[in-house]
Each structure stands twice: as C-alpha cells, then as structure tokens.
Amino acid sequence: MFRKGDGHLCTCCVSALASFRGTVPHGLPLEIGDTVQILERCEGNSCFCGLHSTSGIFPACYIHLKNAHIKNKGQFETVIPTEDSVITEMTSTLREWGAMWKQLYVKNEGDLFHRLWHVMNEVLDLRRQVLVGHLTQDRMRDVKQHITARLDWGNEQLGLDLVPRKEFAMVDPDEISVTELYSLMEHRHRKKDAPAPASTHHLFAQVKSLMSSNLGEDLDVFFTIYDGRENRPLSERFFVRLNKQGVPKSPEKTEKQCTLFVDLGSSDLRKDVYIVVHIIRIGRMGAGEKKNANSTQYRRPFGCALVSVADLLTADHKDDHLLKVYTCNTESEWYQIHENIIRKVNSRYNLSGSNAGLAVSLQLLHGDIEQIRREYMALFTRGIAITKKLGFSDIIMPGEMRNDLYVTLERGEFEKGGKSVARNVEVTVCVLDADGLVLKVKGSVWAGSGESGADEYHSIVLYHNNSPRWAEQIKLPLPVDKFRGSHMRFEFRHCSTKDKGEKKLFGFSFVPLMQEDGRTLPDGTHELIVHKCEENTSLQDCARYLKLPFSKGNLPGNNQAAKGSKESFWITSFLCSTKLTQNGDMLDLLKWRAHPEKISDSLSKLKEIDGSEIVKFLQDTLDTLFGILDESSQRYGLKVFDCLVHIINLLQDSKFQHFKPVMDTYIESHFAGALSYRDLIKVLKWYVDRIVDAEHQDHIQQVLKASEYIFKYIIQSRRLYALATGGQNEDEFRCCVRELFMSLRFFLSQESRVGSPIAQTQVVFLRTFPSVYSELLKIFAVREVASFVRETLGSLSAAARADCPLEPVKLQCIARTVESPLYTNPESRCILLPVVLHLLQAHLQEQRDLVMCSRILSSMFSLIKKEEVVSCEEVDVIVRSLLGVLLRTILEITNRPQPTGNGNAPRLQFQDVTGEFVACLLALLRQMTEKHYQQLLDSLSNKEDLRDFLLQIFTVFRILIRPEMFPKDWTVMRLVTNNVIITTVLYLSDALRKNFLNEKFDYKVWDSYFYLSVIFINQPCLQLEMFSPSKRKKILEKYGDMRVMMGCEIFSMWQNLGEKRRWVGRLRQVKGVANGSPESSSTACESPWPLPRSTRRVPSLPGICASSTRYLQYIFTYEVYISRINDIVRKSKV
C-alpha cells in the first residue's frame, strides 16, 4: 500500500526498471522486472516496501509506478497490476522461461535452446505492439491469438502447466465453475484452437513471365478454373496482357498481374480440377509471316498450359511453377486443347518448345473472404483482381449483389460466300440499348477480370475455317435497369490476308437480353440466325432488324427460309444474378394480382422453383404469400401455409442458412400480417391433430421442422394486432395457444415403437421445440412459458427403451432447454428443474447417453456458479437427486475394463466420459455449504446408508487423485480437485466421529478414510518443495499448503481412535487373504509414503500373504506419519 503524507491509502505497486544490489542497511535487492508492493514512501528518494515475504528500502528512481489491486488479503495476499491480463501473463511467463532457457544451454539442448530464443524474441516484439496500443480491434485479436499460441508452445516444450484461457485471458478457477474450467482445459489439451477445416477456399495466382523462343508479339493470357470431370469451367476468366518479351505490360502495377479466384468449395479441390491457361498472340495471321504493308492485328491461338489444383493442397505458401506450354497440331482442335492435354491425347498437341514455359506463382488460401482480407491485407490494399466463380458459391450470403451474364462464343457454320477457300472469321460482340446505342457502363463487355471492360470484344481468328469453334467466354456485368430493351449483337467479318488486311462484314446475329414478360435470356445453348449484311450502315438502325427472328429455336412454322439456312451461330449463356430471374413461375407468383386465376397453380409450383431463385426475391415472395392469405384465407390458407413451410425449410439448407437473418429482419421490420396468426395457428393445429391417425408423416414432419419460424410469425402477427387494436381478443389468442399445446401434449404422450412413423415425428418436434421458447416469452409471462414447457416435456411417455430413437432426443431437448434464456431465469428454473432432474436421473441410473447427460449437468452447474444469489433449495434438490447417482456413475465408468496395447488409451478413456462427470461432481460439492452437508447426512435414515455413502465417496475421491485421472500438465485442475476433496473431508469427519467410533466402530470406514488421507498428502502435485519459486508462491497464495490441512485432520482423527488404532487396516488385510482381491496386490499395497527408517518390522503371520503383511506394516507406521505431520504443523505456525 502506498502511504502518502496525509495518511490516505491507495493501491499501488511498482516494476523494477533496473537491478539494485541492496547493499545499504535494510536494502531490498531488486532484479529488472520484479513487482514490488509499496508499503510506505519515505522522505527523500527511498521507499519502504515489501517483496514477497521480504521488506526493505530502495531508491525511488529504480522503479516505475503501476496501479494494482490486492486479491486474497492476508497472509497470502496477491498484488495484481491493473493491466491487460495477456501482458501480465507474458511478463511472468518470459521471466520463468528465462531461467529455464539458461538451463537448456547448460544441458546442451541446443535445438530447443535456439527455438525458444526465437519464440521469446517474437513474444517480446508482440508485447511491444500490444503496449503501444495503436492496433485495431481485429489486429489486436490476431496478435493476442498469436501470443497465446506461442506461450502454449513454449510451456509444452518446457513441460510447464497447461494454462486455461477464455478469450485469450487466463481464467481464475475460483471465478468459474469446475465444469467450465474442465471444458477450457480439455479444449486446450485437444488443441481445438486450431481452426476447423474451412469450407470455402480461394486461389491466388500471379503471372510472372512467358519464356519461349518464338515470341515477338503481344500476348493475351487467360486463366480459368476448369472441371475435368464435367468438362466445364468453374470460374470466369482472369486476363493478363504480356508484351513482346513475355513479361506483363505494366510490371510496376503488380495488382494487374495477380488475381484471387474466390469461393471455391471443398468439392472443387480435386485431382481432376485444373487451372487452365490459354495464350493468345496479337499479330499477323501466320506466326512466321514476314512484316509487310499489312499492319492489321489479329487475335490468334498460341498455346495452352494447365496444372491440377490438388497439387497445391500441401503448400502453405506461394509456390513458383513453370507450366509447360502446348500448341495444337490443327487449329480446329483449339477449342478443346485443354481437354486433350488432360486426357493425354498426344496426337493432337505438341510441346511448344523445350525451353518454353509460363512462370506463375500459385497458392491456396482457406477461410471466408473476410478472414482472407484480414490475414492478407496487403493484397487487397493494392486492389487485386477478384475472379468470381461461375454461379453462386456453396454458401450464398445475404446482401451479395451480383448481376453477371456470361456468354460463351461456341461455334459457327458459315458458307464460303463465293470464295475458293474458307473464311477467316472474326466475331465482334457489343451490347446496345433500346435506342441502338452501344452501352457505355464502365465497359459493357469484359474479356475477363484483371483488365477493364470495353465497348466491344473481338474473338480469335481461326485460319480458313468455315466451321470455327472458339469456346471464348465473355462477361456482361450490366446494371439491372439496362437489361430491359437491350440486346447483344454479333458481327461476323472475314479477315483478309492480303496486303490491305481488310475485315469485311458479311453477316450478324443478335439476341435480346430480356423477354417481354420480364424473364432474362434463359441459360443454355442458343442457335442464332445469321442475317446477311455487307454494309456497316445497315446496322446503324437497330429497329430495322429487331423485328426479325433471332433464334432458330423460336421460329414460327411458316418461316421455312430461315429454318433452311445452313448458316448458324451458337452461343451459351449463363446468368448469375441476385435481382433478375429466368423463371416464369416465379414471375407469375409475384404478379398474382394481375393474374388471380393463376394463384393456385403458382402456389403449387413454388416448391419446384430452385432455391436460389426464391432467396433472391425472399421478401417479395413472403409479401405475396401473406397478401394472398389476408385476401383469400379460406380458399388458399392451406396452400400458403405449405409454401411458407417450404421456404422456412429451404433456409435450413447449408447453402441458404445465412438468409435466416434476412427472414428475421423481415419478420421484425417488414411483416405486416396482423391477422395472419389466426390462420397460422388454425392450420398448425389441424396438422398436429392428424399426426396420430396419419399413415404418411413426411409432410407433417416438415411442418414441425419449421415450427420455430411459424411461431415467430404467429407471435409477431399477434403483437401487430394487439398494437393496432389495443390488445383486443387477448383471451381468445391465449385459448388458441393452450389448445395447440394440448394437441401437442396428446401427440407426444403416444407410446412410440421402434421404427414407427409417429416416433420419428416426435423426434422432429423435440428437436425444434426449444427454439420456440424465446418467441413465447415475447407475449407470455416467464412462469407461463415454463409451465407450457414443463407440461409438454412431462407428457412424454415414461416407458424408456435403450433402442428407442426418442430417448437421446429427449436429452438433447433438455440440454437446449437448460442452455436457453428460459432456464436462466430463477422464476422459471424452479418450475423446470424437477422435470430436468427426473429425466437426468433416469438416464444416469441406466448408464445411457452419458455424454449428453454430462453436457446438461455442466450447463446447470455453470449457471449456478454465475448466479450471485443461488437458492439453497435449488442446490438441495440437485444434491438429493444427483449426488448419489453421480458417485455411482463415476464408480461404474472407472470400473469398466480399459483397452490394452496403447499407453495413452486408459487416460483417453477416462477423459472421454469420466472427466466430465468428475467436473460435475466437484462443481456440486463446491457449491454445497455446511447446511447442505447437514441436510444430506440427515437424509441418510440409518447407519448402513451413511456407511455406504462414506465408503462410496472416499472411494471416488481416491479415484480422483489417481495420477492418470488428468493429464500431467493439468495442475490447475488437480489443485481445484484437491481443494474440493479436503473441504468435503472436513465436513464428513464429524459424521465419521459421531457414528463410527467406540462401540459403533467400523473398521472398513476408518481404514478407507485414513488410506485416502495418506495418499492425498503424498500426491506429487502437492509437494511444493519440488516446484519453482514462482509456482510455489502462486499455489500458497491461492490454496495454502493443503498437506498441512489434511495432516492436522489426520492427527485429530488419529487421536480420536484411541485403542482402536491397532485395528485400522486389519479388514483390508483379511480381505486380501480370503479373496485374493486386487487390493492385496503389491501395487495396491505400496506405501503411500516412503517408509521411515524407524519403522518397526512386523513378524510374518501364518496364512497371511507377504503383500498383506507389508500393507499391515505401513498401517503400523501411521503414528510415525502423525509425528511428521505434527512437526510440519508446528513449523508452519512458527
């Protein structure tokens, strides 16, 4: 405590900035970093202070003042600086590592010495970043995560204790429940901090250069992700321009050389998924032609390269690849050169050159795009090109705006046109609006990401080919309002190889982007009509040709001339839009007021519409459904309800699950069906009433699966109605809800047989029922909702069979109930607790579903610990219901045979189940007060019950302090366990003295008590002398020396035995002789303490095995142990 001149006290501590030898009288030696508590400031430059148990003075200029608070005031008080707990942990850990690091050098462990040195420097650097305080919240979180990972690594390497953490900060075991502490320890032990396998992946690609002997022309390089199994591209194209030397045209703009292929699913990371590269040269028609007067540039095929995505899976950094470049033997095979390379059809392609290759850097990145933005911030700062997936990702996010029309120029069939040789056909693509003007919206036609779009696109030219196949993909990222009235035009020109190099127009095709009814161009392949045209002026007035037919698939029957034409042009279109639709049924539903006669058909067809189309127009679709319900509930009520159920269940799909918040927002902010609750309750009850008699339960199960959102709509509708009418018809609404729950209880009370449809329907309901609680709480009082839940769960059939699928689901429902806000409220918890305990007790007694039982118990005890005021009656009810069955469960599990052959197997078996139940038992015992113990002992009606209970709990305690109970580095958990054990033993000692002494003496109970006490004292985790000074200090500050406490109790109990001392242990000896039990084995009979030299020898007794004699010898040394304990107690007092 810092004492000022006026006597005012404030909490303060200091950190040593420099070492002080303390050579002056009463001087206190300091080392850099030592924390000292200020007791008094003296005149001048000295301070009178305390360091651990030492006091002294030192110059004030050697220290730095810090704010602090004192915890656990008294003999073992702790001064804790009020700074970030991660900083405090780093400081103490680095100080501890420093001493051990020096020992590594002494022991010649060079490898660990150097690795630890680098980690310590890294942690120090991270510490500086945190102390400066200039980090953003996201960056601070990443830094702290990195720090704790490094601290855990170092602790593991040095054999130090595992540190339980919550949100990167160390936890105080006294501030949380034992179950939560165990969960944190298990979490860190199994290294669950490592992220789960990501479901979304991204591919980084960077083009460096093209090495080839026959360069000399500019190049266009296109990358795409290609599915070799389905022979289709998975992504749009990434476009890079290279100069005549084969390097990027703008080397200083690195963002133009890089791209990120985003939103790849886990299913896309296969061996038959490839990164395909097509290289196009820009220059003369023939690669070997000499320069002449013709300066016209053509886009001509050059080569192709590819690499499998699976080859990148093992790399965690950017890998440089030199991709071999192949060329076609014949240009007519260019469209499928990548397929030929994949299938290794060697006769159709050749290696471009022995030294030719495309140098690229590739790396797979894992996680959602926001995570990638945080981890690779530099990429996005430079404006890296994002190359999107064709179609939506595996998970569609709400708010994602996308409106891309992809068009692939597939092939054409053209006549010679009076020429002796085939044409060199080039296709020019442009997009025009309703007025015939070229759209100029940031470039309406994109060859690929990486380069800006243009007003028009020119295809490659295949030499002398009247049936060219291009397979070139372009993208039209047009605004939604530009689709109506716009069309795409394809102009066909013959590229002459003569001196003039003319590009002569000979025809065109066109296709509207949107049909008259509002549907966009359908996905798929379209055969377009090639219209003759030889003058560019003929295309200036688009109104002249827009009246003509554009597709051979839509020609009227009397237009034989166009159908008989040999010339055709094929394209493939694919729309990826969050605003436009190609589905006529969806449009009919949304325009239901214009076509009321189609309402019934539209509602019936809704289930056939693709889910991505529904979520595009989710709010409009919901408005339509409730609009129809308000106007024609009698006629369409059932169909609207079924459509609503379909949409709700659609959002359960992993692809659309992120749209649940969109529906939640709709319900809270946009839903206006104030009268809908009546029809929704009515139809829902109609379905529930027919469950028992229905032969087919599939549709009813779908209805119950959607019950969470059905109740959300019911409750919100009722709230809107009450707001509009001032709460009218409240009694009618409550009556309807009660009747609905009566129907539910009747359906749940039906005895379910294995394999029966009704059993599966009960399972579906119980899985969704807990999600309804929060909605009911918006209208009903908490006690009313708790009564609904208690009566509903209480109506379940009591007949329990292990093979019934309903049994585990009951527990899952109870688990979610305990974890819900309804159970958190003390008012409702007292109503729900009996039904929860009843079901738990039934499962524990039969040893069924133990994992789920432990989860429920953990949640219950964690909640009790968090409550500031816990009802004594609540704890008492739990004790009476669960303490005995918990003890039996632990004994039952630990007595099961353990697998052999693996040294770690026994511990893992303990950890799988027993650890959770041990934590639950410890949490319950720690919550019990003297009053609870007294009530527990009073409830044991006779001496035999008390004897069984004491033997049972002493046996369990011996199990808890086994070395294999917890991993070696779980010292925190072991200390908490020992603290609970000694507290419980102190409470039970009185019962032992009162009921089993003198004429009531029971050898077995006393023997079990002393055996537990001795092995308790002998635990390695309590031998404080073996620990480092810092660890010993922490344990003493929090728990004291528990050996002394237990020793005092042994001494007291031993003195109470009097003449009975010589009989303690005799029962165990006789049992070993008669039954040859494991207790008499050499392992079981080993001395809990090392035998003192003064131990008296016990003569061999006839008929008694040597091991039992040895154990008896240890029993006779208790007085020697007591003498030692007396010494320890006496010294501790001194």
Characterize the structure shown:
- The protein is α+β, with helices and mostly antiparallel strands.
- It is built from 37 helices and 31 strands.
- It has a 6-stranded antiparallel beta sheet with strand order 6-5-4-3-7-8, with no helix packed on it.
- Strand 7 and strand 8 form a beta hairpin.
- Helix 27 packs antiparallel against helix 28, helix 27 crosses helix 29 and helix 27 crosses helix 30.
- The protein is globular and about 130 Å long.
- The N terminus is likely disordered.
Topology of this protein?
Elements: E1 2-3, E2 9-10, E3 12-16, E4 35-41, E5 46-51, E6 54-59, E7 63-71, E8 78-81, H1 85-106, H2 110-132, H3 137-157, E9 165-166, E10 169-170, H4 178-189, E11 200-211, E12 218-227, E13 232-233, E14 238-242, E15 258-265, E16 273-283, E17 298-308, E18 319-323, E19 326-328, H5 337-343, E20 349-351, E21 357-366, H6 369-375, H7 377-381, E22 385-387, E23 403-413, E24 425-432, E25 456-458, E26 469-476, E27 487-495, E28 503-512, E29 524-529, E30 531-532, H8 542-546, H9 560-564, E31 568-577, H10 584-590, H11 599-605, H12 611-616, H13 618-631, H14 633-650, H15 660-670, H16 676-689, H17 698-705, H18 707-725, H19 730-748, H20 757-768, H21 773-776, H22 782-794, H23 806-818, H24 821-824, H25 826-845, H26 850-866, H27 872-894, H28 905-927, H29 930-939, H30 943-960, H31 971-995, H32 1003-1017, H33 1029-1039, H34 1042-1057, H35 1066-1075, H36 1106-1115, H37 1118-1133
Parallel strand pairs: 15-22
Antiparallel strand pairs: 1-2, 3-4, 3-7, 4-5, 5-6, 7-8, 9-10, 11-15, 11-21, 12-13, 12-14, 12-16, 16-17, 18-21, 19-20, 23-26, 23-31, 24-25, 24-27, 27-28, 28-30, 29-31
Helix pairs in contact: 1-2, 1-3, 2-3, 4-28, 10-11, 13-14, 16-18, 16-19, 17-20, 19-22, 20-23, 22-25, 23-26, 25-27, 26-28, 27-28, 27-29, 27-30, 30-31, 30-32, 31-34, 32-34, 34-37, 35-36
